[in-house]
Amino acid sequence: MERLTSPPRLMIVSDLDDTMVDHHNDPENLSLLRFSSLWEEAFRHDSLLVFSTGRTLPMYKKLRKERPMLTPDVIITSVGTEIAYGKSMVTDDSWVEIMNHKWDRGIVEEETSKFPELTLQRDCDQRPNKVSFFIDKSKAQQVTKELYQRLEKRGLEIKIIFSGGKALDVLPKGGGKGQALAYLLNKLKAEGRLPVNTLVCGDSGNDTELFTIPNVYGVMVRNSQEELLEWYAENAKDNAKIIHASERCVGGILEAIGHFELGPNLSPRDVSDLFECKEDNVNPGHEVVMFFLFYERWRRGEVENCDAYIASLKASCHPAAVFVHPSGAEKSLIDTIDELGKYHGDKKDKKFRVWTDQVLATETTHGTWMVKLDKWEQTGNERKCCTTTVRFISKENEGLVWENVQQTWSEESEMKNDSNWII
Ligand code: GLC
Ligand code: MG
């Protein structure tokens, strides 16, 4: 978050399962990829991405390995009971203290064990400040009521949340996705970085609280659960800042960005001619996102095998531009592009995808830009990632000229050598 010196233009606070990630309808993750390229191209540099999930941190990391997910600026896990910042996920210790107020996990376990209606979830879904169960929908209301009374009598201040028609979480009263968001907004405000706009996105009961935070826009995705839609019908249907999207999952988030006019919502993935859409303003981040999209389409054989494309790419390279391959080998960037020319369609039908994450551009001296990003490449189930740095010079009337590209294997990469890695 520190990289932003002024208030973020947009803060998206999104649930993951069945909101960001479609578990039922999009095996190729196309909607997620559409969102990701839009975020990196148009929002990453001046906005904040927050994930708020019911998953524990280890289960979030697992999902991150399975799907082409971006790195959020803030990750709120375990139904708003844990907050961490940045790529290295630094825990918010003040939040931990708040979560321990009038909370005792032992007492919660003891009291809940008296309810045969409650079945404990797996160990990997339990956390110090989150005790999670399954329950039959028809029993949820009665058990919730009794449990509140019992735990109150034992001196605890807790909160019970019913989600997805079957999950019941017991949390500290100060926890939950809504409280965590309120805490984050307060923190940003105190730092003079209150977002200009905030959009919350969710699909189920544990997301309800997100929609109760004042002054935020909200989108319930099309595939929202009954308990969230019922809450909306009873409590918020006159709130024009909340919509029930007509698109599923992350498609609904794109829809909401458009509906509330929170910024551009045309994903670069929905642009057919990537070379046409040069911007007037110098935007090195855009240049890189577009290049790697072209790279994906070229290798998938989705663009015409036409020399003019390669020639145009070469024309935007400085003649002496150098590419440092992740293996350490140095090559001419123009030769590298020539080589790419030979790979047209080599990944056809191979479930090949490329995406960029954490694209951040800085102007080092006037007219010289450094863009840093993670470039991911996936073929089938195998994925690799290189931390990539591109140096551009911006010349009047010539646009951006690629001067240098340097790559190293990212720590997160499952493979750290590959002779077929082109760029
Ligand atoms: C996630 C968590 C689960 C929790 C549910 C509802 O699925 O893994 O433990 O009960 O969200 O909040
Ligand atoms: Mg969900």
TrEMBL record:
GO biological process assignments: sucrose biosynthetic process
Q: Which cofactor does it need?
A: Mg(2+)
Q: Mind telling me which Pfam families this protein's record contains?
A: S6PP, S6PP_C
Alphabetical list of Gene3D superfamilies matching this protein: 3.10.450.50, 3.90.1070.10, HAD superfamily/HAD-like
Name the reaction it catalyses: sucrose 6(F)-phosphate + H2O = sucrose + phosphate
Assembly and interactions?
A: Homodimer.
Q: What is this protein called?
A: Sucrose-phosphatase
The upper taxonomy is: Eukaryota, Viridiplantae, Streptophyta, Embryophyta, Tracheophyta
